């Protein structure tokens, strides 16, 4: 509705050159606090909205209350962000999605990242690879983990199938939200260990 639209916060420049968070100063080469203090394995990230209370509610409806029609609005928001800022999405050979563990997938019935990626793939005519990146063990939500536990929580949680398909390719990983950046980093590391050349992250939103 128009009330929700007015309360959404768009992510605007200047961006952290790696993590995409808005910087409160004009020094483009300076990283945000998260990227400065953590070793993150993705090359850069793009996030279209700031995660606030309004978006938190919309994402909850989308992921847990079967309001999957929101995918059209969310996808268009991500596409508009790419076009508005002239981001070079054509450098990527494939789109992939951050996977859910099979147990969580059965509970939810879908992967929200995949619903978002389909629309982006169709608009920009970049193939979407499914079932190549898989999650082999469940993990705790990163936002609920202590900082020192976030790396160990995700270590070894992902695996690549059919690695020949991604060897030497540039991959854009799609997800709904970046919080700590650790999940994106671990999936990027998994892809790079399998031979991916460059790994970028595209999300609907990012926390401040």
Q: What's the helix and strand layout?
A:
Elements: H1 2-7, E1 9-10, H2 33-37, E2 44-50, H3 53-64, H4 70-84, E3 94-97, H5 102-108, H6 112-124, E4 133-135, H7 150-154, E5 158-160, E6 170-178, H8 182-193, E7 198-206
Parallel strand pairs: 2-7, 3-6, 6-7
Antiparallel strand pairs: 1-2, 4-5
Helix pairs in contact: 4-6
Structure in a nutshell:
By secondary structure, this protein is α/β, with parallel strands linked by helices. Helix content is 36%, strand content 18%. The protein has 8 helices and 7 strands, in the order αβαβααβααβαββαβ.
Keywords:
208 residues, alpha/beta, 5-stranded mixed beta sheet, two-stranded antiparallel ribbon, 8 helices
Question: How is this structure best described in words?
Answer:
This protein has 208 residues and is an alpha/beta fold. Helix content is 36%, strand content 18%. It is built from eight helices and seven strands, in the order H-E-H-E-H-H-E-H-H-E-H-E-E-H-E. It has a five-stranded mixed β-sheet with strand order 1-2-7-6-3. It has a two-stranded antiparallel ribbon with strand order 4-5. Strand 6, helix 8 and strand 7 form a beta-alpha-beta unit. Helix 4 packs across helix 6. The longest helix has 15 residues. The protein is globular, with a radius of gyration of 16 Å. The mean pLDDT is 89.
Number of DSSP helices? 8
Structural class assignment = alpha/beta
SS elements, strand count? 7
| Strand residue content | 15-25%
Largest sheet: 5 strands, mixed
Helix content: 25-40%
Radius of gyration (CA) equals 16 Å
Give the overall shape, derived from the CA principal axes.
globular
Query: What is the residue-mean pLDDT, rounded to a whole number?
Result: 89
Distance between the termini: 24 Å
Major β-sheet strand ordering: 1-2-7-6-3
Compressed to H and E, one letter per element, the order equals: HEHEHHEHHEHEEHE
The low-confidence parts are: none
């Amino acid at each position: 509705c128009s009330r929700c639209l007015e309360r959404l916060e768009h992510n605007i420049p200047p961006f952290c050159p790696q993590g995409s968070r808005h910087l409160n100063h004009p020094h483009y080469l300076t990283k945000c606090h998260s990227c400065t203090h953590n070793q993150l394995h993705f090359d850069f990230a793009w996030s279209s909205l700031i995660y606030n209370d309004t978006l938190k509610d919309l994402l909850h409806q989308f992921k847990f209350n079967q309001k999957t029609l929101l995918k059209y609005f969310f996808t268009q928001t991500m596409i508009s962000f790419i076009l508005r800022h002239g981001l070079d999405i054509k450098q990527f050979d494939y789109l992939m999605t951050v996977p859910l563990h099979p147990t969580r997938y059965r509970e939810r019935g879908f992967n929200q990242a995949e619903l978002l990626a389909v629309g982006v793939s169709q608009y920009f005519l970049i193939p979407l690879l499914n079932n190549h990146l898989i999650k082999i063990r469940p993990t705790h939500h990163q936002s609920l983990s202590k900082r020192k536990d976030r790396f160990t929580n995700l270590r070894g949680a992902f695996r690549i199938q059919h690695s020949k398909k991604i060897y030497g390719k540039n991959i854009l990983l799609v997800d709904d939200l970046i919080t700590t950046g650790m999940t994106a980093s671990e999936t990027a590391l998994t892809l790079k260990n399998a031979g991916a050349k460059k790994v970028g992250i595209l999300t609907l939103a990012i926390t401040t």
